[in-house]
Design goal:
Blueprint: H1 6-17
Length: 155
């Protein structure tokens, strides 16, 4: 089963530290990372277009500014993850645990969050236009400045 290598993580860290002058940005486009333990990693600004994270552990992971176009996170653990500014438009997060996650400024337009745990998640200035929150746990969510037009299931 494919995974993110230690070398890729090192190269990505150097890429982040050097503002892209050195190292290499992680690009795991189309990879299947279902069930993988990626908790606590720094994957900021990485490319995960069409990547499958179903059932993966991403608790406390820095995913800020990453591109997840077409990705799926069904049943994934994103507790306390930093997804600030991430592109999650149209992404499937059904049944995922996003409790305490930072989604400030993230694009979640058209995303499926049905049955997800969104307890205490921060959606400040996020785009939730046409997102589906049906059956999601929504206690303590922060929605200041969020775009909520046509959002389904919002309590």
């Amino acid at each position: 089963m494919a995974s993110i290598t230690t070398q890729e993580l090192s190269d990505h860290a150097l890429w982040l530290e050097s503002s892209g002058a050195q190292g290499r940005r992680i690009d795991e486009t189309g990879l299947n990372l279902s069930g993988h333990d990626l908790a606590g990693l720094n994957l900021a600004r990485a490319q995960f277009v069409g990547t499958v994270f179903d059932g993966a552990d991403l608790a406390g992971t820095n995913l800020s500014g990453a591109d997840f176009s077409g990705a799926t996170f069904e049943g994934a653990n994103l507790t306390g993850a930093d997804l600030g500014g991430a592109d999650l438009g149209g992404v499937t997060l059904s049944g995922a645990n996003l409790s305490g996650a930072n989604l400030r400024g993230a694009d979640l337009s058209g995303a499926r969050l049905d049955g997800a745990d969104l307890t205490g998640a921060d959606f400040t200035d996020a785009d939730l236009i046409a997102a589906d929150l049906t059956g999601a746990k929504q206690g303590g969510m922060i929605l200041a400045g969020a775009k909520l037009n046509d959002t389904r299931g919002l309590e």
